[in-house]
Amino acid sequence: MSATRIRILSARNVLPLGRGQSGGAQRSDGDSKLRLLTSPHLSPSSPARALSSLSATRRGLPQEKMSENGMMSRAKVLTIDNMNPTVKKVEYAVRGPIVQRALELERELSEGMKKPFAEVIKANIGDAHAMGQQPITFFRQVLALCSYPELLNDNTFPEDAKSRAHRILQSCGGNSMGSYSASQGIESVRKDVALYIERRDGGMPCDPDNIYLTTGASDGIVTMLKLLVCGEGASRTGIMISIPQYPLYSAALAELGAVQINYYLNEENCWSMDINELQRALNEAREYCNPRALCIINPGNPTGQVQSRQCIEDVIRFAAKERLFLMADEVYQDNVYADGCEFHSFKKVLFEMGPEYSKSVELASFHSTSKCYMGECGFRGGYMEIINMDDEVKVQLTKLVSVRLCPPVPGQALMDLVVNPPQPGEPSYDSFLKERTATLNALAEKAKLTEQVLNTVQGISCNPVQGAMYSFPRIIIPEKAIKEAMALGQQPDMFYCMKMLEETGICLVPGSGFGQKDGTYHFRYKIPLSRIRMSFCHFKFTLQYS
Amino acid sequence: MTSMERVIPTVNTMSVPPQQALQALAEGLHRDIKQGAQKHFQRIINVSSADPHRAGIKSLSFVRQVLAACLCPQLLKDKSLPLDVRQRARTLLEACDGGSVGAYSPSAGLTYVRRSIADFITRRDGGVPSHSDDIFICAGSHRALMVFLKLLARGKGKTHTGVLTPVPCPSTLPVLLDDVDVKMMPYQLNEERGWAVDVDELQRALTAARGHCEPRAIYISNPGNPTGHVQNRKSIEEVIQFAADHKLLILANEVDQDCVYGPDAEFISYKKVLLEMDQELAESVQLVSFQSVSSSFLGEGGLRAGYMETINIDPEVIHYIEILLCFDISTPVTGQLALDLMVNPPKPGDQSYDTYIQEVLLHRTTLTQNAQRVVQALNVLPGMSCQPSMGGVYLYPSLRLPPDFMKYAEVSKLEADVLYCQMLLQEEGVLLGPGWTCGGASHQHHIRLCVIVPVETLEEVLSRISAFQLRLMGRFSNPVVDVTKEDRVFQYKTGKVIKREGGLVNGSSVVV
Questions:
Q1: Which intervals of the chain are annotated as region Disordered (chain A) (predicted)?
Q2: B403-412 per-position pLDDT tens digit
Q3: A260/A317 same-domain check
Q4: Cβ of B109 under 8 Å from any chain A Cβ?
Q5: Domain membership of residue A289 as a residue range
Q6: Which side of chain A, N or C, has fewer Cβ within a 10 Å radius?
């Protein structure tokens, strides 16, 4: 393999951004390349546009139609009929009809209505704090100090919290979290992130210039996808994503008008990745699009698997051979529970594979403050590290992130604390360690319990939850129930989850929102922290429908 | 001029927008100074965009106290914080899932905060009702606009969505429009009339736009960014009527609604005016209004929160706003809480009320005085004139640059105002916004200057601009002369202008 491989992302094949203002030149030929959100007109004959067939509810192909109202002089400018057709393809499973119904049920309960359950349990979203997880005291103390620095004179806060707050404020414009930061993020935070990555990866060097702070990991993921997507027709960018997948990916690809290439995880082998399957998906996709990137979620969402080191090496070799840009979603890197499993970052494995790979394979890795032991979703903190990216593309990336002005500064401050927590000897170290360990232990325990409880329920089979925060158990849905669901125009697993919600108050996400092999049904279940319900056992679905 | 020539090619070949190039240059200079480079200025002052806290404007204590208590609930029991602060923090935490700012909020924002915002708008608009279902909280007003524009964007060629956009416009707008792939269709604001909107010009711009794209919306900022103009009711009615006649949706940036200080100026919202016009219009013209915590006296841009209110948008379309927000970057919760505090400040009788009022009053006075001071100081300079402003946080002075300078800019392949800003930055350490970033070139060159900065900072900025301007005008007209520091001091102390002609200094009275 040649060391001088051409980069997948080069300045020539990245979308041009900005208005070329430096020379006062107008955009010349940019129009076709820049059409990102305006849908390529869907033609039924074009297989390349068969996007996101996972959505439960597909609206028909967008068509202009002149309604009676449309003829009136005071017709509205923006209606459902003349709205951007691409947007209509975007569906988001995690917060779909089940969640709507859950909110209604909560309201009905609060109004005193009688239900077979006392409370709604939101096992649908990975929101630790909403489920009762307590924040790390030290983090919140520092953030409070940053918010109102007069508290630095208050004796109730430990000295290390104060000095940390002081340090963060020093790096904010005007010593205030209310100032905008650089679009790429606060420099000192990026440096701390780089040091954290070096420690995590056993000394592999990390350049702070390759760190971009983001508004949660999703911001970074969408930004990278946007940078990758270009071309028309058979040269339109294809992005490989795992099935089951986290719906952010399908939604973003639909909106960008990119081609979603599905590769299936192997449920029989604990949702592992299979190189043959990757190859199959890729070969088929090459017929109608230009595959450019491979997305991996490790530890897995929604499937909870942790990739082995061997598997990661295989994936990297595959990406190198097929010239694919790697996107590694590693937000659950501290959430590994199963014995014998360990988190290996793609970066570390890549760098240990030697210069043939480490100098050429392009990689973006994502992390956030929302998961692990922090669970601080509300702060929208995150970062991405980019490796082997072409310098000119980096300029474009910097421009792209500048459209978003800057990530929230409190989230950046929190990210800084996460990558640089209290050290042994500091006043807050003991309590930090205690809180962190308690949360991670509780999660590990619940992960085991989840597997055990679910596997006792008739009609449910569940793989071990090795990591992350979810399980994705398979459900057997009796023929009678499938027929009833079809009659209602619902996916069978949606029907199942709706029944589950109505009878037990447990809010799940149907597997169809994540994608699954035809004829199989699943749901995603967030392992709850404080309450695990035996309610599952009271759910007589299989009995009712058999 | 050697240092200038060295840097120009860099800026020129960098494929980054000029504001970013200037920013990078400013950072470089800042580093040089820190490493001991000899300059006659000790620090770089950035007044190119509104970032009040960075500039040294203090945050509002009430807002920061409540946020601190929400972040660290042990403070709820801390008696050193005012009672209303602790009560408010408790209420806000109850509005968060799990009682924690660390939980996700619903994608359209915390229900409690959306209701607060709707109540605020209803009060602000004298009872014109606002519904919380029409309020969508986003990670900044800029982000809200981005989300909404995604709904409007479509088509190719003649059907490509176009947005009528004022020139000048906020410097962040052109890049945003580009990013969501809608075409920018410029209409010129009328500088002679204090940057007012001319309906004739709107008509001209619309006609010009047709054939190139399909104009579907009109964007306007009121109070004007960067013009400082505040529209009166009649002007707003004209825009609404125009939008109705030509089937345009109105995108109203009303981010600086709190900052109106002109003697006869008053902020009236587009929504209030629209809903008070005849029923047919009130029920059909589509309007989206934007507001943010980065604005007004909060200045909390770093918290990234804003909202939009949608009017006359069909529920089917609203459904898609919700879907887009579902997988957009969700809004940081601390920012959402700050929004609540913005629309619902302490009331008379609350323990924090007096402090809050004093702090806001101080900011308001600073802003008003600064705006007047800039007009006064710049209008006496040769080659510069500045329309007085009525609101907002910017002024937008115009430059009359000598022909030789224009030629020099041409040779340097830079817009004259960009070159001007670059030279000013290098020679005096002041970063301004080149007018070119506010909507493209026009025959007239401008600079954008943010005035929500401490008074001392502003005086320093004016002193440096003045020195630079005088030197520049001298340098590019014969014979070349330099202005001494004494001249500058004289100019500022006395308000007398110094005009140099053929090397002679003339003091003359100032016309303000």
A1: 17-69
A2: 889 988 888 8
A3: yes
A4: no
A5: 179-419
A6: N
